[in-house]
Design a protein that fits this description.
Blueprint (H helix, E strand, L loop, with lengths): L3 E2 L10 H7 L15 H21 L6 E4 L2 H16 L5 E5 L4 H11 L4 E5 L9 H6 L5 E5 L13 H10 L3 E5 L11 H4 L3 E5 L10 E5 L25 H39 L3 E3 L10 E6 L4 H10 L2 E2 L5 E3 L2 E3 L2 H5 L4 H5 L1 E5 L6 H21 L7
Parallel strand pairs: 1-11, 3-4, 3-5, 5-6, 6-7
Antiparallel strand pairs: 2-8, 7-8, 9-10, 10-14, 12-13
Helix pairs in contact: 1-8, 2-8, 3-4, 8-12, 9-12
Bound molecules: pyridoxal-5'-phosphate.
Pyridoxal-5'-phosphate (PLP) binds next to helix 3.
């Protein structure tokens, strides 16, 4: 059975060209980029090349890129590193209720050490209120952290405008762009952000590599203590093969991203429209626009999201729910609850996230399977359906 993978916001397969570029650095070119001998110099050249590729995609300078182990580490570094650097100047951070747990948990960590955090609320569409944002600054605000695109609903936040407001108020601006890179233009000069996180495995590079853009001149204390790698901003021997992969994945995006997303959006829109028109008691979670091209989060009233995921999995289809498993119990998505969904609605929601290899045939096959699957699951459901 051919599997149909619709969970690209969770992770993506490695692109063949990316893998080919990486292989020599897992075999013959095994040097440590900090060594001064020949093997070390070969590694250093590859590291510099990858740094340039990442910087070029972002319209940044190579020296502004710090390689990390993942998006989570980049977010930790931005929140904790900036707080540690600036807490004497001010201890207030502004973020949102819908951030990834990498940001939320970092905020909680600094909160326990004296930070004050404001969590901005979203409306039913998952959108932020810029007036409320402007009012939330205090004379102690040092940092704002707002994601560029949401991982669960795909909604895009007005980062450029928010960074401008933050700067007027004298605060730095970090954006978690893990779900934006590869799906839209991400130009740090145009956005004028101070820090930006990204992750390799969401853009057809391997897992275990990410990057943090830190604008020139902004000090950020290292969170990973150790050697002087990455100009002292992140200790630890660089994961060279994966970094080479990240560079190649971003180089690929420069020429392919627009084409990829044009195709993906057509598939996603066809899929979403068909579901909302043909399966009763369904609705879209999150604003229709502005939204990244690949994400569709749909509530199928009267079913358990996990039931849908497992039934589809048995039929060869991978999707996901935003629910989190904690202490053996399934917790409904924090993001959907923040948008005012009931626990039942949040629990009945499924995220489909498309990627560059999906085809129209695959989408039509999922549509064929989905309708009877939902119908069957609803017959087992104790919840009565109302429009
Ligand atoms: N931020 C967002 C918005 C994400 O979607 C994710 C991963 O799902 C992360 C951060 C964490 O990235 P990583 O899995 O590379 O740690």
């Amino acid at each position: 059975m051919e599997r149909i993978y619709l969970d690209h916001n969770a992770t993506t397969p490695i692109d063949q060209g990316v893998l080919n570029a990486m292989l020599p650095y897992l075999q013959d070119n095994f040097g440590n980029a900090s060594s001064i001998h020949q093997e070390g110099q070969v590694a250093k050249m590859a590291l510099n090349q990858a740094r340039k590729e990442v910087a070029d995609y972002l319209n940044a300078e190579a020296a502004e890129i710090v390689f990390t182990s993942c998006g989570t580490e980049s977010d930790n570094m931005a929140l904790i590193g900036i707080y540690d650097q600036f807490y004497k100047k001010g201890n207030h951070i502004i973020t949102t209720e819908v951030e990834h747990s990498a940001v939320i948990r970092s905020c909680e960590y600094v909160e326990a050490r004296g930070a004050k955090i404001t969590y901005l609320k979203v409306n039913r569409d998952g959108l932020l209120d810029l007036e409320e944002f402007e009012k939330s600054f205090t004379d102690k605000t040092v940092l704002v952290s707002v994601m560029f695109a949401n991982n669960e609903i795909g909604v895009i936040y007005p980062i450029k405008k928010m960074a401008e407001i933050a700067h007027k108020k004298g605060a730095l601006f970090h954006t978690d762009a893990v779900q934006a890179v590869g799906k839209m233009k991400v130009d740090v000069k145009d956005l004028n952000v101070d820090l930006l996180s990204l992750s390799g495995h969401k853009i057809y590079a391997p897992k275990g590599v990410g990057a943090l853009y830190i604008k020139k001149g902004i000090p950020c204390l290292s969170v990973v203590k150790g050697g002087t790698q990455e100009k002292g901003r992140r200790g630890g021997t660089e994961n060279l093969a994966s970094i080479v992969g990240l560079g190649k994945a971003m180089l690929r995006l420069v020429s392919e991203q627009e084409k990829d997303n044009h195709k993906i959006k057509k598939l996603r829109d066809h899929f979403e429209k068909a579901i909302l028109q043909t399966i009763p008691y369904t609705f879209l979670n999150g604003a229709q626009e502005p939204r990244v091209a690949n994400t569709s989060n749909i509530c199928f009233k009267g079913v358990e999201g996990e039931g849908v995921i497992l039934s589809l999995d048995l039929k060869g289809i991978s999707a996901s729910s935003g629910s989190a498993c904690s202490s053996g119990a399934i917790e409904p998505s924090r993001v959907l609850l923040a948008m005012g969904r009931t626990k039942e609605e949040a629990g009945a929601s499924v995220r489909f996230s498309f990627g560059k290899s999906n085809t129209e045939e695959q989408v039509n096959r999922v549509l064929e399977i989905l309708s009877p699957t939902i119908e069957k699951l609803r017959t087992y459901s104790p919840i009565s359906l109302k429009a």
